[in-house]
Amino acid sequence: MNKRMLVSCMFALVLIFLTAYDRYLYDVLFFDPEAPDIRGNHQAIQDILGEIHNKYNIWESSFSYIGIFFPLIVVFPYAASYLEEKNQKFHYFIQTRKSFDHYVRNKFLAATLTGGLAIFIPEFIFYAIISIFFNNDADSPYRQLQEEGIFYTLFNTQPELYIWIKFLTHFLLGACFACIALCLSTFVKKKAIVYVGPFLIFGIWEITAGAILDQYQFSPSTWYDLWPEVSPFYVYGSMITILITGYVIFIWRTRRVRIDD
User: Fold this and answer.
1) CB 154 within 8 A of CB 210
2) For residue 117, how many other CB atoms are within 10 A of its CB?
């Protein structure tokens, strides 16, 4: 794991734990059964402890902050690598050892996979930690069930499967924004634009799709949270379209750059 990947994962973990702290972990750490409003009320104490110590309650309430900053997290580790190699003319050296098409395919695959992993790894670490230290009882009467959302019935009946679907969704979304950054790197010369550009695109995209057009099914934050406004077709169809389109643009632009050079 390179240093930038480590930084991205650590930043993501901090955001996840901050959200979890605001929602549940603060109460876990500082719950006082001797508080005047519940002192001696054993049922109330049991209800509170049961809710705040349930892994699934904590998991589903821990992604608000990372859902805002994930475009920055997924592009930082590797999305600017093509631009770095191009600016240093290093890509010419690489192409003496492999074909141009092979180089471009590998670059696209590495960037998108790294983007997906940059969000999957910290989420999985968080999942592993709360699985060790908190109650894993999916049938607990204290587990907060969902009343809406994509796959909400799965969360209520098979929460582990739901969690892995959400892992996959976030992985694909991370790959999509890494793909956007990689394509952007073929148009610009400054790395800062590659890092910040996808976050700005994300903000404009959210405002346009949601606030202006009222088309929340095309909003990345809606995909991230698996909100009820969208169907799986829109979520996964849109992300696959982004990846395919990004691959075509990257191939086209790298060939143009190669010709211009």
Assistant:
1) no
2) 22
Residue 243 C-beta-side C-alpha neighbours within 13 Å: 20
* pTM (two decimals): 0.91
Across 234-260, b (16+ Cβ under 10 Å) vs e yields bbeebbeebbeebbebbeebbeeeeee
Instruction: Using the predicted structure, report yes or no on whether residue 260 has a pLDDT greater than 60.
Output: no
Could you count the other beta carbons within 10 Å of the beta carbon of residue 16? 23
Q: Where are the domains of the chain?
A: 3-260
User: What is the Rg, in whole angstroms, of the alpha carbon atoms belonging to the chain?
Assistant: 21
Long-range contacts of 145-150 (CB under 8 A, 24+ apart): 146/60, 148/228, 149/225, 149/226, 149/227, 149/228, 150/226, 150/227, 150/228, 150/230, 150/231, 150/232, 150/235
User: Token digits for 128?
Assistant: 């592993």
With cut-offs at 50, 70 and 90, classify the pLDDT of residue 41.
Answer: confident
**Over the chain, what is the mean pLDDT?**
88
**Which pLDDT score, from 0 to 100, does residue 93 have?**
64
Task: Tell me which H or E stretch contains 187.
Answer: none
The DSSP symbol for 232 reads H
Tell me the two tokens of residue 109: 């695959």
235 token code pair: 């979520």
Phi-psi domain of 226 (left: phi exceeds 0; alpha: psi -120 through 50; beta: other): left
User: What does the DSSP 8-state code read for residue 63?
Assistant: -
